[in-house]
What we know:
This protein is mainly alpha-helical. It is built from nine helices and five strands.
Amino acid sequence: MLLHNAHVEPRLVASDSSPLIGLATAGAFELLRQLFGTLKITRIVKDEVTARDALPGARELTAAMREGWIRVAPAPPETWQFPELDAGEASTIALAAKRVGALVLMDDALGREHAMALGLEVLDVAGLLLAAKRAGLIDAIEPLVARLTRRGFTLPEAALRAALASEAP
């Protein structure tokens, strides 16, 4: 028997502040919408990114929330189960852990370890750029990485090498 009106929830994509700031710094914030459609962030992450209008990502995030493709959720009570993490990372992991199959966007190594230990899939900025290239959304990763570097946003060396290796002929 087929259920005609079965509702399948879309995959939850929860982002920490660093990928939002990183992609805004690279001038590639729109890749988030192109890759995932919608994202969820916690109020803590929203406050980190929008603390000052001049910060990279503040205007982009405000516009994305206004357009409705980035939604804000309260920080789950489970946020405080990760006292060794920054509040934004902890709240992002707690939010994602509530949904089977969720994807976490995060750069912090310790936060990534915690998320993966909970069985969550994780992508950092380098992984996002690689996913965008594989999806045909960008032609090359290197120009975006160069822009990040020029603007002081650093990527872990191993992640950077892996992303750039994908461009080697």
